[in-house]
Design a protein that fits this description.
The chain starts with 8 loop residues before the first helix and ends in a 5-residue tail after the last helix. Helix 1 crosses helix 2. The chain is 54% helix and 0% strand. It is mainly α and 82 residues long.
Length: 82
């Protein structure tokens, strides 16, 4: 598929340098680099699952509730906590 693509000067220079270094056509280097970049983005997006381990926080002092964090902070740290 023929596509016109505008590359930044620094990117084009690096691709040309790699083409010369590898002794391969510019088109091959561009395609290989794009494939590699796209594959690494896919694998990075899949990454490891983030696991949370629940811990017992013990009993809450009378009059405090963990259901509303803003109120809890207000009650424990005062109105000037921000």
């Amino acid at each position: 598929m023929r596509t016109t693509l505008t590359l930044d000067d620094d990117v084009a220079a690096k691709l040309r340098a790699e083409s010369r270094r590898a002794g391969r056509p510019f088109k091959e280097i561009v395609n290989e680099t794009l494939r590699s970049g796209l594959a690494s983005r896919r694998s990075a997006a899949r990454g490891q699952a983030f696991n949370i381990t629940a811990r017992d926080l013990g009993d809450v002092k009378p009059g405090l509730s963990l259901d509303n964090v803003a109120d809890l902070i207000e009650q424990t740290e005062g109105s000037l906590h921000r």
